[in-house]
Amino acid sequence: MTAELVRGQNHPLSQARLEIRVSAGKPVVAGATLSDEHGKVHGVEWVAHPGAPTLPGLEVSRQAAADHRLAVDLGAMPEAVHRISVLLALPTGVGGPVRFGGLAAPFLAVTGLDGSEVANYTITGLEAESAVVALELYRRQGAWKVRAVGQGYAGGLADLFADQGMAEAHQLAAGINDAVAQGLARSVQAPRTTDGDRTRHAATPTLGADQGGAAAQGAVPPPPSPYGTQPSGTPGQPTSPYGAQAPGTPGQPPASPYDPPAATDPPSGAQPGATAGGPVDYSHPRRQTTAPPPPPPTAPPAQPGQPQQPVAGDATGWSMDERLYNQVWGMFEDLARTMAAYRSAVDFADSRMEKELDEALSDPRSRIGGQSDAAREAARAKHTQLVDQARSALDRDLAQLAAEADVVEPALPAAYARWDNPVWHGYRVPMEIPMALRLGDLHLPEAPQLRIPMLVRLPLERGLWIDSGRADSLDGSFTDSHDLKRLAMESAVAHAARLLAVYPAGEFTVHVIDPAGSGGQALVPLVQTGVLAGPPALGAAGVADVLARLTQRVDLVQMAVRGGAPDSLPPGFDTSEQLLIVNDFPHGFDDRAVTQLRYLADEGPAVGVHLMMVADREEAAAYGPLLDPLWRSLLRLSPVPDDHLADPWVGHAWTYEPSLVPPGSQVLQQVLSRLAAARTKYT
Amino acid sequence: MTKGQAISLQKNDGGSLTAVRMGLGWQAAPRRGLFGSRTREIDLDASAVLFADKQPVDVVFFRHLVSDDGSVRHTGDNLVGGVGQGGDDEAILVDLARVPVHIDQIVFTVNSFTGQTFQEVQNAFCRLVDETNGQELARYTLAGGGAYTAQIMAKVHRTGANWTMTALGTPANGRTFQDLMPAILPHL
Fold this sequence. Notes:
The structure holds 2 protein chains of 2 kinds. Chain A has 3 domains: 3-186, sav2460 like domains (Lipoxygenase-1, Sandwich), CATH 2.60.60; 320-412; 462-566 and 573-682, 3-Layer(aba) Sandwich (Rossmann fold). Helices cover 29% and strands 21% of the residues of chain A. Chain A has helices at residues 156-163, 169-186, 241-244, 320-362, 371-411, 481-502, 524-529, 539-562, 591-603, 628-633, 667-682; strands at residues 3-5, 10-12, 17-35, 47-48, 54-55, 58-59, 65-73, 83-89, 107-112, 117-122, 131-140, 143-153, 436-444, 447-457, 463-467, 508-513, 577-585, 609-615, 634-637, 642-646, 653-658. In chain A, 46% of the residues are buried. Chain B is mainly beta. Chain B has a 6-stranded antiparallel sheet, with helices on one face. Classes of the chains: A alpha+beta, B mainly beta.
């Protein structure tokens, strides 16, 4: 539970590695001073500021910004440091506001690395102040706590530092302002809006408005990714499907950043639902209709006193695809929230019982006779009663959601369906790109039977990272690293096959880099059916060749798009989306190849080139922090059940399970063969 | 509805309410004289605080539009008001059936985020509506328009298996609900 701090209030910190997010609406300078147990700052080297952004265990940003993320590692703090004061100041001499009174109240949130909020504090009541000590992190009996301070200084940083007993206060303040002025000159100005001095959301009564949920409340601009990868540190870019395109928005995602030329006309033989002699369908296969959508299926009226019977597609949307997508996300949110209600009630029951048991023990009257026992008995009974009530409310909600899942799951189109869904046996190569793709299932420990399809929007906004590095699975069974690598490659192949299958023929191309050939067995379904762009690239030469081609492609498309002339691509240019599967990274990679890979990760998604890394991060540890941005930019998936994904509303840890082909099933081969056949017709 | 008055949220036919909406509407007081038509933005904010045994558990306000459990939803921040007597500028929806079992009171508050006192606000009201049929159950006017910037409007609390609403109407001062916590606690 997030603690909403008021001035002077403190809150314990259980995690050592924290992020402090600042949101002020206008560019502000963020910094921190360290002080010892007597509150003394030992000179300028105990101050983190834009001119000297890094201290042991502490990093602030180099420039003034409306939003900051300060990284704090309490474990790495020198022993002598007993207090970290987080300060905000308005940059001087750059034409911005000179008093905090002219800004919206600055908002700070202390979060864990997974984005879960520990405490937050809105600094209200500031007027003429231009610098403020916002928060303090301090040691108390060996443990760290955070306190909301909100002490402002009208004289700016110089006064603030002087108040902390620093002799060099004025020089330091002047130096910081210089560093900030230089930083502002380098940085891109944020676009001004009429609402620029507010950090608040305007009224948006759509689902999108609450995407921040409790974890990152509205004022914190980058909402945590719904699938924020916890181990890789800070949450990556917001990839909430709600963030990219609000549900209910008509229109499908753009097929690719550049217009697919007419040459991608579908093969006539594969037209689904086209019956011989039937009426000619004049609608463009890839263009969304502007006619009102057919009405959603209506649920039969509920019996009085009975919950409504769930119906598949009972959500808003322009197509059945979109309705089911929105319905699945609705179920996801409902399960997250009903579980939050249950956990909150149980936590409350636990803490109340603890308090009452303590009271029973400490009350001297109750020591005589059986009063103490009776009081303890009563406390336990109250606890049981509340937990039972919470459980029955949870069971009621779970039953309703399970009934909904039972009708929704069979109704899902192939792109959203599990591999064991019969829809895959009737697979036909599609004419249109679906809205989203199922990457696996999500569930919570209290309701393991209720699986929520994990749907991500297409085209992919982030690359994927199938983590072959963690050998401890959830159920405690030890999977050895060889097995894990095999499983990782198998799930990568299942994801890639699904991507190939849900795109129209010829609109998705898969390249594979398998330098050591270790993924050969898992890749058999892709290789044998001939759906890959070429055989898996082997050795350093193969790596260099594939990377060079894809890098060149990104350059070319970027140039064309930036030059405003997407038609100027060379004739015969393959406009399909590209996926590069990299196995065994960094085997076979030299420095140049690593640079190219990072370039693809950064620039590729915007021009339809995506990465799928099948890798153990530890094996690339030699590259150090150089590769951290790469891992962070990817959506981490595990080959075995693992609880590393957080939902965007409450931030529960969800157990992810990849969508795998059932053992012994031939469905993957069948689907890929049909796809290969459709491609031959088309070329 | 007047200060201190309590209304049971049980329907006349014996069934209990399942969803209620706390609506808030206001208009800025018009200026007089030259440039009187220039609008002055007044931003009132509706918030709801969920309590379990007098401990605040969750808050719904403009930065946290939905309680974690999903039972209380804010329809979004209105920065200027203006609907006045017609409809609600901000609304908080409470799905009573979904309120977690340990939450026994929900307190509704109004704050003036822009700092004007209620003297400068016209037609400010808060009302409680049966969300299932749109029927207004109770209306409470921000009476008097005194020199304060916040008001603790009402609370909805459990009485046995049902819910009761009590009008509080206590004036207070503060920019957001956090400032009101000391003023709320005596009403629990």
